[in-house]
Design goal:
single chain; mainly alpha; about 80% helix
């Protein structure tokens, strides 16, 4: 099942990459943060004997996206929030080393992933068409079987799929539900 989930997650990168070539500009720092912190999360998961196809595919896809962003769009702009997220990941890695508890690295990495997604949430809030709806829909669909096949409900096994599920659910609300509500509440569209 992990292979199917991982393949589904990777397939979502195809429309996303196509959208980049059609002119959409992903939030550069979000993708860099995801790549770094998901790598930390996977390292912690592997240390605890946990893994799944979704996180492995995420890292592969993130690497491609980050490479494309730099080839196509040059340098990333860094904000204090971006620095905060990377420091959070480094803190998690440090705590993992000091306390010999990979769950601390996983927790810090995933917390920083959520915070690091805020620039993308903000961009989609302002412009729902700024991201590839098809890609995000496929990523969201991949969350369902990933959550269903969590082998053990330990922190190492469950934290990453739950976090991805939350991030993707928020993106679905911002991309699909928010524009629909705006159309319903806009007096000009009701006449």
């Amino acid at each position: 099942m992990n292979i199917i989930i991982g393949t589904l997650f990777l397939i979502a990168f195809i429309p996303y990459i196509r959208s980049i070539f059609k002119g959409k500009t992903p939030q550069k720092t979000t993708w860099i943060i995801w790549l770094c912190l998901e790598s930390l999360t996977l390292s912690g998961m592997l240390s605890e004997g946990a893994y799944n196809g979704q996180i492995i595919s995420a890292i592969i896809g993130d690497t491609v996206i980050v490479s494309l962003i730099f080839i196509k769009n040059g340098k990333a702009e860094w904000t204090k929030l971006d620095g905060f997220c990377l420091v959070g990941g480094a803190l998690g890695a440090t705590l993992w080393i000091i306390y010999h508890d990979a769950n601390l690295g996983i927790a810090a990495g995933l917390s920083s992933v959520i915070i690091g997604t805020f620039p993308t949430f903000r961009a989609v809030w302002n412009q729902p068409e700024a991201e590839s709806k098809l890609a995000w829909l496929i990523w969201t669909i991949s969350c369902v079987p990933t959550l269903a096949v969590i082998p053990k409900w330990t922190f190492a096994d469950a934290a990453q799929p739950v976090t991805f599920g939350i991030v993707n659910a928020i993106m679905m609300i911002l991309m699909y539900l928010r524009p629909w509500v705006q159309r319903l509440t806009n007096p000009r569209t009701l006449s």
